[in-house]
Design a protein that fits this description.
It is a single chain. The protein is mainly β. It has a domain of 107 residues: Immunoglobulins (Immunoglobulin-like, Sandwich), CATH 2.60.40. Helix content is 4%, strand content 50%. The chain is built from three helices and 46 strands. The strands form four sheets. The protein has a 35-stranded parallel beta sheet that branches. It starts with a strand and ends in a 6-residue tail after the last strand.
Length: 496
């Protein structure tokens, strides 16, 4: 297992490359090597490489080949008139802690590869001379892209085709430009997890949409923040798809714009759409297809425990034959709950029940801590029980006041996760919120740390309080409950 160092400023291709003081100068020199499993190629921070980097050799699952960085300063940058990093047939590769900017083609392209991880990579203005997108994989297996930032690219931010095993985790994708550009597009792939991403198409030129799933099989899209674009999620023909606990907003610009759409490119079966806060757009969830399309099967579509507000059209639209249900959703007054064609109503194949209309969605969200909250009279799921929590502060030393929200809660299967807090999704790395009198940090295990900000306290004795709503579940989208944490602050002594 050899580490090779590359420094564009001080290196030389006549060096051995095996030490920081004997670094290579170019990526092409690395390409001339026969890399072996466990080898690493580290690029010096502050370096700039004006060439495509071809990865030709494979690691193993236990000893991948790693491409990373070393030193201090700004991340090393790869510029290229073609792709930034390009590979065919190489497997077991890790790419991390780099920047790829102003590439003519894709920032990273992998074809017929397996077991790739791309993490902590910054991509800016890729695909400038083509419509390749910024990160592109096809005909591959087990691709993970995580904790990376993609901005200002031409065409799709992430483009996946015919990949078995896709994980897109905690990435930020902003402003993918072009009439056919989406933040993420996944085609004909399976075993897909899209979680914890921030995807914003608000200021993209000619934006198309945010997430496109074409014929997915076994997909989960959860805990993402999506904004802008002509639509939020186009989850076209597929099977076994869960779309849950996302915040989807700003999808407008067209009279057909929707938050979640499905059913127009093939058979659509077993969709669970739950726990989303859907707002500021035209339509909410649409089950539809263009006129003249074949009669696809649209079966077992469940839309429940979502919050809908600020629409120009209805929360639900079903205008093609479909079976499913729309239940336990919260809809702000002034928004039409649903638009279902008379033929589907007469067929009794798509049921509507137990939905709630409220005057102010924000009040409901704050009270129940969940974007998926039903109204306050909704039935509590007996599989999960959340119990009210209190934090009482009598003295303050400047240190955080700590506790756990889940220690007095329970679930039938013994598993509990904190999924929402204060109207926000709790991500893999937790969540920090600024409250009225202090700052609260929570994690998915329910641990919290509240740091009081005495400058925000009123200048008198007595007490004040603030309340944070939270939502928990047992690791599924079906069994969940919500309650609140109230922070009581006794100012006698705090202000003396």
């Amino acid at each position: 297992m050899t580490i090779y160092y590359v420094n564009s400023a001080t290196g030389s291709d006549r060096n051995s490359g095996t030490g920081q003081n004997s670094a290579f100068a170019t990526l092409s020199k690395v390409e001339s090597l026969t890399l072996k499993p466990g080898d690493s190629v580290l690029l010096a921070k502050g370096s700039v490489f004006n060439e495509q980097f071809d990865i030709k050799y494979s690691g193993t699952e236990s000893a991948p080949i790693k491409i990373g960085s070393y030193g201090t300063g700004a991340a090393p940058v790869i510029h290229s008139g073609d792709d930034g990093i390009h590979s065919r047939y190489a497997s077991n590769i890790v790419i991390e802690n780099l920047k790829i900017s102003n590439s003519g083609g894709a920032a990273i392209y992998g074809g017929s590869v397996a077991n790739w991880t791309v993490r902590d990579v910054e991509i800016d203005k890729a695909g400038m001379s083509s419509d390749s997108g910024s990160v592109k994989f096809r005909n591959s297996k087990n691709i993970t892209i995580e904790d990376s930032k993609i901005s200002g690219v031409k065409s799709d931010g992430i483009w996946i085709e015919k990949v078995e095993g896709v994980k897109l985790l905690n990435n930020t994708v902003t402003n993918s430009h072009g009439a056919t550009a989406d933040a993420i597009q996944v085609n004909d792939s399976s075993d897909i997890l899209i979680r914890g991403n921030h995807l914003d198409q608000t200021h993209a030129e000619s934006p198309k949409g945010v997430i496109v799933l074409i014929r997915p099989v076994n997909a989960v899209v959860e805990d993402n923040s999506l904004s802008g674009g002509g639509f939020g999620i186009s989850a076209q023909a597929g099977k076994n798809v869960a779309i849950r606990d996302n915040d989807i907003s700003g999808f407008h610009g067209y009279d057909w714009s929707f938050a979640i759409g499905l059913g127009d490119q093939g058979n659509t079966r077993d969709y669970d759409i739950a726990g989303n806060h859907i707002h500021d757009g035209a339509w909410g969830v649409v089950v539809t297809a263009p006129a003249g399309d074949p009669d696809y099967v649209r079966a077992n579509i469940k839309i429940h425990d979502n919050v809908f507000d600020d629409f120009t059209q209805s929360a639900l639209k079903v205008d093609r034959p479909a079976s499913g249900s729309f239940y336990n959703n919260t809809i702000e007054s002034g928004v039409d709950a649903y638009s279902i064609s008379p033929a589907i109503v007469d067929a009794h194949s798509f049921t509507v029940s137990n939905n709630h209309t409220v005057a102010n969605v924000e009040t409901v969200l704050a009270a129940s801590d969940t974007r998926v909250a039903a109204a306050t009279d909704a039935a509590v799921d007996p599989a999960v029980v959340a119990v009210h929590d209190n934090l009482k502060i009598f003295t303050d030393t400047g240190e955080a006041h700590r506790g756990n929200l889940l220690e007095n809660d329970s679930s039938d299967n013994g598993t509990l996760l904190l999924r929402r807090f204060g109207g926000e999704a709790v991500g893999e790395h937790g969540l920090t919120l600024t409250g009225e009198y202090g700052v609260m940090h929570v994690d998915r295990e329910g641990n919290y740390a509240y740091t009081l900000d005495e400058t925000k306290l009123p200048g008198h004795d007595g007490h004040v309080s603030e309340t944070f709503g939270y939502g928990v579940n047992d690791g599924t989208s079906q069994h969940n409950d919500g309650d609140t944490l109230t922070v009581f602050i006794h100012m006698d002594g705090l202000l003396s």
